[in-house]
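Lab notebook: predicted structure, single chain.

Context: the supervisor wants predicted structures on file for every construct in the current expression panel, including those that have not yet been purified. This is the next one on the list. No modifications to the sequence; it matches the entry in the shared construct table.
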Amino acid sequence: MRDGRRVLLRRLDALAIAVVVPMPSFYVASREGAENMGRLALQLEAGARCLPTCTTAPDACLLALCWSADVARRMCPLMADARIGPFAP
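Prediction complete. Output recorded below exactly as produced.
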């Protein structure tokens, strides 16, 4: 029973090390991700305000919503029909 307990403790030690060692990088990555999501939300809100309709939206407005004005122009009617993105209620 003593050997079994030692094996269990070694496994728990290994598990603790495997969990604790990468923690700082997970923390930093999650903070950066949360900050990026906040910036993206502001960017999408700004783009939504300048988006009168899909067909007449200027390229600068579409570029606030997407990496490509052409892609945004093609996706805009789909988002409007689905009521998602800038067209969400």
